[in-house]
Amino acid sequence: MSEQPSKYQYQWRVSFDGGEVYGDPHNSKEDAVAEARERPHGGLIAECLQQDFDLSITGDSIIEALYGQNEDQMNDAGEFIDPSEEQTRDLGEMVSDAIAAWVEKHSIDTKAWMFADTKNDERVEGAPEDAA
Fold first, then answer.
1. What is the pTM for the complete model shown?
2. Angle separating helix axes 85-105 and 59-69, nearest 10 degrees
3. 15, 47, 99, 107: least buried by Cβ within 10 Å?
4. Per-domain residue ranges of the chain
5. Confidence grade of residue 75 (pLDDT, cut at 50, 70, 90)
């Protein structure tokens, strides 16, 4: 299976914990800088690229799961189905296609929590706290 181009674009975001968690996207770098400066300790800004979960599966993984599900029905030699390499690859492609159709049919949100990439990260100093 070939890698598809991302449906997401890099967006500026702000983190207040050193880059573990980033907030909602901003329309521009300047907006992200402004949000970071609102906090006394500032923040980390970065361009973040969202990604989807990988819901594809290999034929080998499916055969392995089926093997485990059927161990009680096997003889002592552990004989089980023995598909060819081509049949195994075909199984993975068919099941992955079925999963993709299921996701589309039910409008399932596949957006992952982790970003695919971050770049241009930069520390922004916060505004000094007002002296009372």
1. 0.71
2. 90
3. 107
4. 11-52+113-124, 59-105
5. confident
